Amino acid sequence: xxxxxxxxxDDPRIDEGTYRGSQLAADYASAYVEDRxxxxxxxxxxxxxxxxxVEVRPPLWVDYGGNITIGAGTFVNYGLTALDxxxxxxxxxxxxxxxxxxxxxxxxxxPQPRRDGLEAASPITIGDNVWIGGGAIVQPxxxxxxxSVVGAGSVxxxxxxxxxxxxxxxxxxxxxxxxx
Length: 180
Known about the structure:
Helices cover 22% and strands 31% of the residues. By secondary structure, the protein is an alpha/beta fold.
């Protein structure tokens, strides 16, 4: 599954992993309003890696959580949906706005495999110092290069090079940023 192979989505072993992810995400949201230090501990158990100085505001929705890594100094605002069937790597010093969706799973286009309950996933990689605007959707298999900006509401369907601004559906480069 993590390797991108087709799998049966309603396998009981998968259900156990998603239950764990949902439970820890709920525990995180509860701890966040009561005890921030305790919340950071829960987040560390939920996610695969959390760098120093990371802030993730709940609610946070994940499939498993353990396939997500977040680099130091990254800020994630309310309502991130990170479906981590495949790895999701978020770099250092990123800004992720409200209600962003990072979606690694995908379904076959052909009707019969979908009817059979098959799906697969492809990893998402977000470079360092990336800003993703509110409500943006990042599709399976996408890499976003360092220092790039994804405009609010954009749907990112293919790789984004470093040092650009992309907007729209599908997202397109509208500006190149100076390398500082």
